[in-house]
Every structure is written in C-alpha cells, then in structure tokens.
Write a structure and sequence with these properties.
single chain; alpha/beta; Rossmann fold; 2 domains; two-stranded antiparallel ribbon; 11 helices
C-alpha cells in the first residue's frame, strides 16, 4: 500500500529573501535517503559485510559493499554476495536487518540537511523521497528524526520497482502532477542518477555518500556537491 506524507498548510512571510523570490526551475525535488540526506553509508556497508559472513558467503570489500547502496535490499545483497545460494537469501536479509537494527540509532542527518530542506520548503517545492530502503525502514528513519511533515510523498523499493528503474520517479511525478523537465533527482549513487536519466529528469549528485564524483560525473548531473551545505547553496541558487 502506498503511503503519503502530507505537508501541512504553511503561511509564508511577505518579505522573502531574494533567493526565494526567484522563479523555480524545478517544482519537484526527489531525494535519495541513505548517503544523501542520512549519514548511514558506513553502517550499511558494515551490515552487508556482517550479513554475508553470517551465512557463509565471501565477505565483500568496503568498495563492493558500498557500491550496492541505493538498490533494493535483496537486489543489493544478491549483488554483494554472488556466491550465496538463493535459498539462503531470506536468512541473508534477516541477518542484515538484525545488524542494522542494533545500530540504526547511531546514524543521523548530514550537517546542513535540515537547513536545506527548510529553504526548499519555504520556496514551496514539492519534496519527496525515492529510496532503496523498505517502507518500514524509511518510516523508522523519518520518525526518528521528525521529518515526516517535510515531505509530500515517498516511494521505497519494496512498494515499487528498484533503482535504476524509473518507476519510483514516474509515480512521484504523477502523484504531484509534475512533468519530467520540472523534476530533479538528488542522490549519491550511479543508481540514482541512472534512474533520473531513465525517467527523463535532471539530476544532482552528492560526492560525500556511497559513490565518488568520478563515478557520478559520466551520468551527466547538473552538479556534484562535496557536502550537504554545498548542496544547499546550489539548490538555493539554481533549483
């Protein structure tokens, strides 16, 4: 079942800063979650490694484990553990969730993310989340950092197609009534940027998450930010 995150009615001050008075280039901004807004890359990498080891697979390197971040959970685990037989996939998923649950409260938003979302909310963009997390996982994260009221809608990998399939973005655009040329995808992986290409949308990459700038650049993002604060500035000036 799809879950909508409704934004309450907001009354904006008359004297907005100059950046808020400029016409919007994008009406809808879709954010990836892990590694883009939420500082969880190292934890996810470690949990993948622990889960694979628990079921007797060859433990992937940090680079191999972090590469799959952004995919749906089972798609990611299967890619990171090619020698684990399919009949062990349910156990592999359970072990990942076990390790993640032990430490999920240790992670937090990147510095500057709340300010950035506040800027975008003031300019009345539609803010959404398109993530490889499960619905349960995203709802847990949103509840823990009190962000539910900032987002109009969200899609997770277990309720639609996983990245880089464009279905997440197609559904969000349809729900908000926004065309691809007025939609921007922001993410830290090649999966996010390829999804934007597949959906006919523009993208912005972040180089502080799972994939570095060298991997993101060939996919043609409008910009690659080195920090959440730099991302905030670019979005304020160009979105």
């Amino acid at each position: 079942m799809r879950r909508l995150l409704y934004l309450p009615t907001i009354h904006f001050p008359m004297n907005l800063p100059k950046s808020a008075a400029r016409p919007r280039r994008f009406d809808l901004i879709a954010f990836d979650w892990d590694g883009t807004l939420f500082d969880s890359t190292a934890l996810i990498t470690r949990c993948i490694q622990l889960a694979v080891g628990d079921v007797g697979g060859t433990v992937p390197s940090d680079a191999e484990a972090s590469y799959v971040i952004g995919l749906g959970l089972m798609q990611a685990l299967a890619h990171a553990a090619p020698d684990v037989p399919k009949e062990k996939y349910p156990l592999l998923g359970e072990r990942y969730k076990h390790h993640y649950a032990l430490h999920q409260s240790d992670i937090s938003l990147f510095d500057g993310v709340l300010d950035m979302l506040g800027d975008l909310k003031q300019r009345q963009h539609f803010l959404t989340v398109a993530t490889g997390k499960s619905r349960w996982g995203l709802d847990q994260a949103l509840g823990s950092v009190a962000l539910k009221d900032l987002f109009h809608a969200s899609r997770t990998a277990d309720e639609t197609a996983g990245k880089p399939h464009p279905r997440m973005l197609h559904e969000l655009m349809a729900e908000m009534g926004v065309a691809p040329e007025r939609t921007l995808m922001v993410g830290d992986t090649t999966h996010d940027l390829q999804m934007a290409i597949n959906a006919g949308c523009a993208s912005v990459g972040v180089g502080y998450g799972a994939h570095d700038q060298r991997a993101l650049a060939p996919l043609g993002p409008l910009f690659v930010a080195d920090s959440a604060r730099q991302l905030r500035q670019w979005l304020r000036d160009h979105a």
